[in-house]
């Protein structure tokens, strides 16, 4: 292994075949020493023969880069057979510090770019971050189902990439994951033929990741280090159940398992404020049409109305006897419709907080609700596998739409109110319905597992759907075909929303993130502007977005 300045090589016993380092000898054996060599002369310049050396895993560790020099070249971190990692002083050969805590053999250790932290990988299925100055553990990355084979930092030190794979062993989970160093959250998972990846490392510019495989094809693969096209990521400390975009497109609201409703700046991704008061998981959020109010509801069976300007709760609606799963403002902003596990959907007067209509008929919990553009009809979906259309004024059922084979998690009207899209869970099919006739007119088939959400774009030409597999599919309504796939979420996607101007899509889910993606229309507009320029003029961000190779 080379030192940062390239002038020194470090080895642990054995020999370097074909080299000009004769004192190593010909016998490829472990001799209980760590040796430093001058690259220019081939002469040994340091030998560490302390007890530390006898704890080293093997020559394999150094030869494969699983130990590392500090960025300044003054220290070396090496995994030991005793489940600890050792920090050695290059000049004196003395042990400076020991990092202990792993319960399985160490498979790697590496410094952060600033030299202040060290990350270690282990057979105990964890990756751990350590403070170099104190030796204390400051972060633990968990979630793997098998031993970890390697870990390394991104050039900016904000992300680590972790590999774990062996082609002939099911003990390894064979997935390459990216983790946020500060939060410890998994932020991205490499999709595709990653089985058996035993090593992964960032490119010097941080835009790519190379993986190597101990598999029959003996390949190395190059990956994008972030999902192509993702504009921005909003990170929270708990799964996100609902997301909405303000009418002016300048703010995004998320809500979820931490009982909080969080308002974000859509342009910067910065948190603006939090609305706190719910005593259980928040399942639904929505902006009023004028953007001044925010409604939220969830596990505590209450609907809360918030003033966005003052950050204060101004009204609370109570009456449901089951968890509230969904809500929607009427187009005129004067009422709110809610759906709950008590088998009812209800209509509330925003000004008074009073229940003004109840829609009863589902034989099981109601999980989704939406207003038609004229405000005279609402749609509900439920655990009884049906979608129902209701007259807002009379509360009477207009149509019952049947075809789903499981709970209907999502309903949404097209902007013109002529079509309804619905998503069942385990039946994996997204369905289109003619609102006036109450008949199914099409299906979107492509999801491999349950679907949690399906929403129309503002122009009605596209539908975005997402679910358990973490992928977001964008469909062309007329052709019923997938025109775009958004990969990046590392777990279930629970919610999706288009911006009112149709320029971006927000998705959110169990991986504790909300992600902002450019819409198809936005990409077409941007692509049109690029036609007027030569490829060499494209920025790095544009190249990533359109899948072009880096310069």
Descriptive overview:
The chain is mostly beta strands and 551 residues long. The chain has three domains: 59-224, YVTN repeat-like/Quinoprotein amine dehydrogenase (Methylamine Dehydrogenase, Chain H), CATH 2.130.10; 232-518, YVTN repeat-like/Quinoprotein amine dehydrogenase (Methylamine Dehydrogenase, Chain H), CATH 2.130.10.10; 520-551, no CATH class. The protein is built from four helices and 46 strands. A hairpin with a 3-residue loop joins strand 25 and strand 26 (302-307). The radius of gyration is 28 Å and the shape is elongated. Mean pLDDT is 84; it is low at 14-30, 50-65 and 167-172.
Shape: elongated
CATH topology of the largest domain: Methylamine Dehydrogenase, Chain H
Radius of gyration, in Å, reads 28 Å
pLDDT < 50 stretches: 14-30, 50-65, 167-172
Overall mean confidence score, pLDDT: 84
Helix content: under 10%
Structure annotation, total helices = 4
Tally of DSSP β-strands? 46
Give the strand content.
over 45%
The first-level CATH class name of the largest domain: Mainly Beta
Structural class, please?
A: mainly beta
What summary fits the major beta sheet? 4 strands, antiparallel
User: Would you identify the CATH H-level superfamily of the largest domain?
Assistant: YVTN repeat-like/Quinoprotein amine dehydrogenase
Strand arrangement in the largest pleated sheet: 4-5-6-7
How many structural domains in the coordinates? 3
Distance separating the two termini: 29 Å
Q: From the 3D coordinates, which CATH architecture of the largest domain would you assign? A: 7 Propeller
């Amino acid at each position: 292994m080379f030192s940062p300045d390239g002038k020194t090589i470090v080895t642990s016993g054995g020999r370097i075949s074909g080299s000009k380092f004769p004192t190593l000898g010909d016998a490829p054996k472990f001799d209980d020493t760590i040796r430093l060599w001058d690259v220019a002369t081939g002469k040994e310049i340091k030998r560490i023969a302390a007890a530390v050396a006898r704890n080293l895993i093997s020559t394999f560790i150094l030869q494969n880069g699983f130990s590392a020099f500090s960025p300044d070249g003054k220290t070396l971190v090496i995994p030991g057979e005793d489940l600890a990692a050792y920090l050695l002083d290059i000049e004196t050969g003395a042990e400076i510090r020991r990092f202990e805590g792993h319960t399985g053999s160490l498979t790697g250790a590496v410094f952060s770019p600033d030299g202040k932290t060290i990350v270690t990988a282990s057979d105990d299925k964890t990756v751990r971050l350590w403070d170099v100055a104190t030796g204390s553990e400051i972060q633990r990355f968990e979630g793997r189902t098998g031993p970890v084979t390697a870990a390394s930092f991104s050039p900016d030190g904000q992300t680590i990439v972790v590999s774990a794979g062996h082609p002939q062993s099911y003990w390894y989970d064979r997935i390459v994951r990216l983790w946020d160093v500060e939060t410890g959250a998994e932020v991205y998972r490499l999709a595709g033929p990653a089985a058996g990846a035993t090593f992964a490392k960032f490119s010097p510019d941080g835009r790519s990741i190379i993986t190597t495989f101990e598999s029959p094809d003996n390949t190395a693969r190059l990956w994008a280090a972030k999902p192509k096209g993702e504009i921005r990521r909003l990170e929270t400390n708990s799964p996100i159940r609902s997301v909405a975009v303000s009418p002016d497109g300048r703010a995004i609201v998320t809500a979820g398992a931490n009982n909080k409703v969080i308002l974000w700046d859509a342009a910067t991704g910065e948190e603006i404020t939090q609305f706190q008061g719910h005593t259980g998981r928040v399942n639904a959020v929505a902006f009023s049409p004028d953007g001044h109010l925010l409604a939220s509801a969830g596990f505590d069976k209450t609907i809360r109305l918030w003033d966005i300007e003052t950050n204060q709760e101004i009204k609370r609606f109570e009456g449901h006897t089951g968890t509230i799963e969904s809500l929607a403002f009427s187009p005129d902003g004067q009422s709110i419709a809610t759906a709950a596990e008590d088998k009812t959907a209800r209509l509330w007067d925003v000004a008074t907080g009073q229940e003004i209509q109840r829609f009863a008929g589902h034989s099981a919990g109601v999980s989704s609700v939406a207003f038609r553009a004229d405000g005279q009809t609402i749609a509900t979906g439920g655990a009884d596998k049906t979608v129902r259309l209701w007259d807002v004024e009379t509360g009477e059922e207009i149509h019952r739409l049947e075809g789903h084979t499981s709970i209907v998690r999502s309903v949404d009207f097209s902007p013109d109110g002529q079509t309804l899209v619905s998503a069942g869970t385990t039946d994996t099919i997204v369905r289109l319905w003619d609102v006036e006739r109450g008949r199914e007119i099409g299906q979107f088939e492509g999801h491999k597992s349950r679907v949690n959400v399906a929403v129309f774009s503002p122009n009605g030409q596209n539908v975005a759907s997402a679910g358990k597999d973490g992928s977001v599919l964008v469909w062309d309504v007329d052709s019923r075909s997938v025109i775009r796939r958004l990969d990046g979420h590392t777990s279930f996607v629970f919610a999706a929303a288009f911006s009112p101007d149709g320029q971006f899509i927000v998705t959110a889910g169990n991986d504790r993130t909300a992600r902002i993606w450019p819409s198809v229309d936005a990409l077409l507009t941007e692509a049109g502007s690029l036609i007027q320029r030569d490829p060499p003029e494209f920025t790095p961000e544009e190249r990533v977005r359109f899948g072009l190779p880096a310069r």
